[in-house]
Design goal:
alpha+beta, 131 residues
């Protein structure tokens, strides 16, 4: 992010038509090509990235012009780093933003999850989350 970026015509922070939030993640989606990821991954890995991912997404949303598009990108597959981050950002911004479907020729897409299990830091319990 560029928190000091200012529009040349006013004191308002610049807003953008398009924003890409490519966030740091546990990398569980790269296991096929990066076998070392699997040896260090655990169900709690995604939990440790959630707050950072949410902060980056919130900054991206704040940088977006009305009617603009934001892409949230991660190489994780678990919903704590994907759907949970987007759901938290949408919940916090109330009805200001909405998700939109994308279509890319030749790419099969699935709808995101509406509920998922979140591992407890105590490693004993799992909590069910629904949106």
């Amino acid at each position: 992010t560029y928190p000091g970026l200012k529009a040349s015509t006013s004191d308002e922070t610049s807003k953008f038509d398009r924003v890409l939030c490519d966030v740091p993640c546990s990398g569980d989606g790269t296991v096929r090509k990066a076998l070392g990821v699997l040896s260090t991954w655990s169900p709690l890995s995604g939990v440790s990235f959630h707050a950072t991912q949410l902060a980056i997404l919130q900054q991206g949303l704040a940088s977006l012009k009305p009617g603009g598009l934001l892409a949230y990108s991660t190489c994780a597959l678990n919903p704590v780093e994907c759907e949970a981050v987007v759901a938290a950002a949408l919940w916090e911004t109330s009805e200001t933003f909405e998700t939109v479907a994308i279509e890319l020729p030749g790419l099969r897409l699935s709808a995101g999850l509406a509920s998922w299990r979140v591992p407890s830091p105590s490693r004993v319990k799992h909590h069910e989350i629904s949106v």
